[in-house]
C-alpha cells in the first residue's frame, strides 16, 4: 500500500481526526519488545485519549496486549458492551460508582481504601466475588492507600477474601516523575512499592500481577516492569520525553487532525487579525481561514501553533477563536485565482510529513497528552488501517524539566513489527485470563 494517502481515502468530513489502527498495533508491538516478559495493559481511558476506545482496544488486543485499563467503571462497561472480554481494570471511583455493574461484568477494580467496603457490599449482594487490585500510594499523593495504613488495609482485604467476597488479583501504584528519568523520586517510589508488595505477600496475598510502570517508565526503567506495564500515551505513538521524538523512540503517532481551508483572501499591511488584534499583518499578504477552534478542543492559548496546507507549514496568527483560526501565508496573488487554497487540506498535526502534536503542546504551554485528549465531539473520528489499506469505521459526528532518555535504555525499533493483522471482534476477545 506504499504511496497511498490515507487522508485522501478516508471519507469526507469538515473536521476529522483520522486514527490509524496499524499505528496502534505497531506501538503495542514496540512496547512488547521493550517490556517482555511483562505483559501489556493498553490504557484506553478518556475514549482512548480521544482516539476511540472500542476500535483502539480491539487493535491493541489483536497486537498482543493482555489487559485494558480505564479510569471509570462506565468506560470499562462500554468495552464489555462491544463484546470485548479481555481483562479490564478500572481504578478511579466515587460514592456514585456502580460497583455491582462492574463486578457483574467481570471488571477488575482498583481499590485505595474507602471503596473496599462498598465493593464487598456489592459482591455480597450479588453473591459473586469481586476481583480487586490494591493500590499503594508510593508518593504521588493522589489515590492509593497511605503506607502507614497499608498493612491493615491488606489484612481487611484478605479477611474478605477468606469469606469468598473478593480475590486480590494485583498490587499497583503510579509514578509521579518517570518522564524525568534523572530525578531520584522514581527510585524512592520503586523502593516503597517493593516494600508494599513484600508486606502483602508476607500477609498471604498470592499476587497475580504487580504493576507500577507507565509509558516513560517502560521506556527508561526496565527495573519497574514487574508482571504488567500500563501503556497510555505511548500506545498512541507519542513521546513522554520533551527531549525525544516519537520517531526516536520507534513509535508511530496514530492520530492526524485535518480539515480544509474555509476561506482565502488578500489583506493590506496593518490588517488586524482575530479578537483583540493581537496580530497585525506587517505587509500585504494572504490570510487562510482554518475552521477549527477551541470549541473543537484546540487551546485558545496556542497561537503560534502551526498548520500544514498542501505540505507547506504556516504559523497560526492572532487569537484562536471558538470555531476558527487564521494563518498568514506570507504572499499575495493567491486569493481569487486558480491558486486559491479554499478547499485544500489543512493538517494541524499527525505523523511524518505533518506538524507534530508536540508543536501544538509547546505553543499552548501544555503537554501532548492534553492536546489529543481534548479534541471535541464536533471532530469526526475516522478509523483507518494503513496496514491493510482499508477504512475500518467512522464514528458519529457532533451528534453523537525536560530530560531525554539515554539511548542505550531503549532498544532499536523493529520497523517490520507491524504486518497486516485481523482486528475482528473475535480476535480482540481472545485475550482472556
TrEMBL record:
The record places the active site at 45 (proton acceptor), 275 (proton acceptor)
Any one of the GO CC terms: cytosol
State the Pfam families in the record: Ala_racemase_C, Ala_racemase_N
**Which residue ranges are recorded for the region named Disordered?**
390-433
List residues, modification N6-(pyridoxal phosphate)lysine.
45
Q: Does the keyword Isomerase apply?
A: yes
EC number per UniProt:
5.1.1.1
Q: Cite the annotated pathway.
A: Amino-acid biosynthesis; D-alanine biosynthesis; D-alanine from L-alanine: step 1/1
Domain Alanine racemase C-terminal as annotated: residue spans: 254-384
Q: Which GO terms describe its molecular function?
A: alanine racemase activity; pyridoxal phosphate binding
Is Isomerase a UniProt keyword of this protein? yes
Q: Which GO terms describe its biological process?
A: D-alanine biosynthetic process; peptidoglycan biosynthetic process
* The family this protein is said to belong to: Belongs to the alanine racemase family.
- Recorded protein name is Alanine racemase
Q: Which organism is it from?
A: Arthrobacter saudimassiliensis
Amino acid at each position: 500500500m506504499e504511496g497511498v494517502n490515507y487522508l485522501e481515502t478516508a471519507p469526507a468530513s469538515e473536521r476529522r481526526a483520522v486514527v490509524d489502527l496499524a499505528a496502534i498495533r505497531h506501538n503495542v508491538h514496540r512496547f512488547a519488545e521493550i517490556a517482555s516478559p511483562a505483559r501489556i495493559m493498553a490504557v484506553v481511558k478518556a475514549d482512548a485519549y480521544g482516539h476511540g476506545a472500542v476500535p483502539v482496544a480491539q487493535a491493541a488486543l489483536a497486537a498482543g496486549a493482555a489487559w485494558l485499563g480505564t479510569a471509570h467503571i462506565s468506560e470499562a462497561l462500554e468495552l464489555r458492551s462491544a463484546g470485548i472480554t479481555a481483562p479490564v481494570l478500572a481504578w478511579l471511583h466515587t460514592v456514585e460508582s456502580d460497583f455491582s455493574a462492574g463486578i457483574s461484568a467481570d471488571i477488575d477494580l482498583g481499590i485505595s481504601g474507602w471503596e473496599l467496603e462498598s465493593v464487598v457490599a456489592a459482591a455480597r449482594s450479588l453473591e459473586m466475588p469481586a476481583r480487586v487490585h490494591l493500590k499503594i500510594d508510593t508518593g504521588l499523593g493522589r489515590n492509593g492507600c497511605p503506607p502507614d495504613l497499608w498493612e491493615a488495609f491488606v489484612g481487611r482485604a484478605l479477611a474478605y477474601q477468606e469469606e469468598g467476597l473478593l480475590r486480590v488479583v494485583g498490587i499497583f501504584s503510579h509514578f509521579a516523575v518517570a518522564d524525568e528519568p534523572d530525578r531520584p523520586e522514581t527510585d524512592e517510589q520503586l523502593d516503597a512499592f517493593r516494600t508494599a508488595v513484600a508486606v502483602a505477600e508476607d500477609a498471604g496475598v498470592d499476587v497475580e500481577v504487580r504493576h507500577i510502570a507507565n509509558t516513560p517508565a517502560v521506556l527508561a526503567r526496565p527495573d519497574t516492569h514487574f508482571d504488567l506495564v500500563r501503556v497510555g500515551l505511548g500506545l498512541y505513538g507519542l513521546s513522554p520525553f520533551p527531549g525525544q521524538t516519537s520517531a526516536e523512540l520507534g513509535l508511530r503517532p496514530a492520530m492526524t487532525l485535518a480539515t480544509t481551508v474555509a476561506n482565502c483572501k488578500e489583506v493590506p499591511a496593518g490588517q488586524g487579525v482575530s479578537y483583540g488584534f493581537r496580530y497585525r499583518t506587517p505587509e500585504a499578504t494572504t490570510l487562510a481561514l482554518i475552521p477549527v477552534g477551541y470549541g473543537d478542543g484546540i487551546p485558545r492559548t496556542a497561537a503560534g501553533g502551526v498548520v500544514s496546507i498542501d505540505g507547506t507549514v504556516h504559523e497560526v496568527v492572532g487569537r484562536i477563536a471558538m470555531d476558527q483560526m487564521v494563518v498568514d501565508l506570507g504572499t499575495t496573488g493567491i486569493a481569487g485565482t486558480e491558486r486559491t487554497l479554499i478547499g485544500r487540506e489543512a493538517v494541524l498535526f499527525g505523523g511524518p510529513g505533518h506538524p507534530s502534536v508536540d508543536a501544538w503542546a509547546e505553543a499552548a504551554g501544555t503537554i501532548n497528552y492534553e492536546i489529543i485528549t481534548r479534541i471535541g465531539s464536533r471532530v469526526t473520528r475516522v478509523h483507518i488501517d494503513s496496514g491493510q489499506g482499508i477504512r475500518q469505521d467512522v464514528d458519529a459526528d457532533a451528534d453523537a524539566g525536560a530530560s531525554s532518555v539515554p539511548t542505550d535504555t531503549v532498544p532499536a525499533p523493529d520497523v517490520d513489527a507491524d504486518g497486516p493483522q485481523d482486528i475482528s471482534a473475535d480476535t480482540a476477545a481472545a485475550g482472556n485470563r
